[in-house]
Amino acid sequence: MEAKRFTIHTPREDFINITRSVQETITQSGAKSGIAIVWCSHTTAGITVNENADPDVVTDMLHGLDLAYPDRPEFRHMEGNSAAHLKSSAMGVSKTIPFENGKMLLGIWQGIYFCEFDGPRTRHYYVKVIEG
Q1: Residue 87 near residue 69 (C-beta atoms within 8 A)
Q2: Residue 100, SS3?
Q3: What are the helix (H) ranges across the chain?
Q4: 12-32 per-residue burial string, b: 16 or more CB within 10 A, e: under 16
Q5: Nearest-CA neighbor of 16 among 103, 128, 119, 89?
Q6: Quick one: which of 32, 59, 57, 33 has its CA closest to 110?
Q7: What is the spatial distance between Cα 64 and Cα 128, in angstroms, rounded to a whole number?
Q8: C-alpha distances in angstroms, 22 versus 29, 35, 80, 101, 120?
Q9: Does the reported pTM lie above 0.85?
Q10: What pLDDT score was predicted for residue 18?
Q11: How far apart are the first and last CA of the chain?
């Protein structure tokens, strides 16, 4: 199966829950066991797995990333989004999600998120299902 491409429209900064689209891609593939690779093809965005029960976790994560990677006047990148590049590198641009019996092996509180650090933008992410 080819990687499936998704398009999303993002706000300035947010974590967008994409768990459902990943599970739907696995289901549509017909694969029963394997891995799903979730990939973001941007340098100022990322992919993460984190709690999906309390929306304050996303708020706290964004606040913590702002504290860890503040915009600095010393940054030389002409686009002025060096902090977003740092956050993207820290979060990473992909996750590998195992699945069995057609269902992801996520913990009860876990969800998969597209992380936007430099929006608003039209973004893409990919899901590749590998049976095995």
Answers
A1: yes
A2: strand
A3: 19-29, 56-68, 82-91
A4: ebbbbebbebbbebbeebebe
A5: 119
A6: 57
A7: 30
A8: 11, 11, 32, 15, 23
A9: yes
A10: 98
A11: 13
- The conformation of residue 23, written as its DSSP 8-state character, comes to H
Contact (Cβ atoms closer than 8 angstroms) between residue 131 and residue 84 = no
- Whole-number Cα distances in Å, 89 to 21, 24, 40, 76: 23, 27, 12, 17
Pairwise CA distance, residues 109 & 48, whole Å? 13
d(CA 20, CA 25): 9
Q: pLDDT digits over 97-119, tens only?
A: 999 999 999 999 999 999 999 99
The token pair that represents 107 in the structure block: 């913990």
For the cut 90, the answer to whether the pLDDT of residue 25 exceeds it is yes
Report residue 99 as tokens.
């699945």
Amino acid (one-letter) located at 119:
G
